[in-house]
Amino acid sequence: MTDIEQLEASILDDIHAASDEATLESVRVATLGKQGSVSALLKTLGAMNPDDRRTRGAAINALKDRVGLSIADRKGILKASALDARLARETVDVSLPVRPGPLAEGRIHPVSQVIDEITAIFADMGFAVAEGPDIETDHYNFTALNFPPDHPAREMHDTFFLKPKEDGSRLLLRTHTSPVQVRTMEKQRPPIRIIAPGRTYRCDSDATHTPMFHQVEGLVIDETTHFGHLKWVLEEFLKAFFEVDEVKTRFRPSFFPFTEPSMEVDVGCRRSGSEIRIGEGDDWLEILGCGMVHPNVIRAAGLDPDVYQGFAFGMGIDRIAMLKYGMPDLRAFFDADARWLKHYGFRPLDLPSLYGGLTG
């Protein structure tokens, strides 16, 4: 038996013994690779005379072709065997019940649902949705909203400040969505009618407060708007949101730097244990703050307060969601508990509308 025949027999044995594609690839590299045994035979041709080189070269190339075909055949067998094993391993019992799809199992978070409900109500009144950055400047968060430097009202907001810049100024996480009002007045000429829902941040945490929470604020600016319009808008919103025919409201004097006069709004309710029913009974519940936009805020936005006036209001989205849907603890909104979300969440296609019903 010649050396070529001996080498071929050894290689074929290795090919047939390969139990998987990785082992087969190792055999291929060991034989046909640059440093392989067949390649090593080809390197010996340079020292032969022309006749021997021609005969020997043809035999080695024929060996190379036969080895390549054997490897390809074995690879096909191994691949088919691996597929059969995988199919056997991943067998599906078609008699099992079908798993519910995302439309059946998925849930919309109550905060997202309530934002959609609020948007639907105010859109029907002609309000547009405005947005602004979560990271704000001191100017937009405080100064343009009539918070004087060192005013105690700045401390009331428990602000998260970022690291100071080289000039000493600091950015901050907005403590309310009111900066969106100023930014909108700077970019848009009156009449303005917007709501600004979004995330806000304050250093506070208990059953009814979290460091990050959601607010919605509304703003109307034109030449004729007055407090009666504000009262009508808020009462219509409360009736639509809580899905009741009538609500009683009570406006109490308060203080906000960006409105004058400023009011806290209470809504009539009935308390029964831990349950609160809006639109019933003789009790009261504080629900939001509002007022006529302060002339200094209008002036800071580049408008003439002798020509334009308007009103603004704001409320906690998480809080009114708790009131409407009976959720006892605000912190659960952000715990990412799938059980809680399955209980309080909404189905993906339960889109709120004033015609089909806010809650489906």
What do you see in this structure?
It is a single chain. The protein has 360 residues and is α+β, with helices and mostly antiparallel strands. The chain has two domains: 3-89; 109-344, Bira Bifunctional Protein, Domain 2 (BirA Bifunctional Protein, domain 2). 41% of the residues lie in helices and 20% in strands. It has helices at residues 3-17, 21-32, 37-43, 50-89, 102-105, 110-124, 138-141, 152-155, 179-187, 227-242, 295-300, 317-325, 338-344, and strands at residues 128-129, 135-136, 172-173, 192-201, 212-222, 249-256, 259-272, 275-278, 283-293, 309-316. Strands 1, 4, 5, 6, 7, 8, 9 and 10 form an eight-stranded mixed sheet that branches. A two-stranded antiparallel sheet has the order 2-3. Strand 7 (259-272) and strand 8 form a beta hairpin. Helix 6 (110-124) packs across helix 12 (317-325). The longest helix is centred in the first third of the chain and has 40 residues, at 50-89. The N and C termini lie far apart (87 Å). The mean pLDDT is 86.
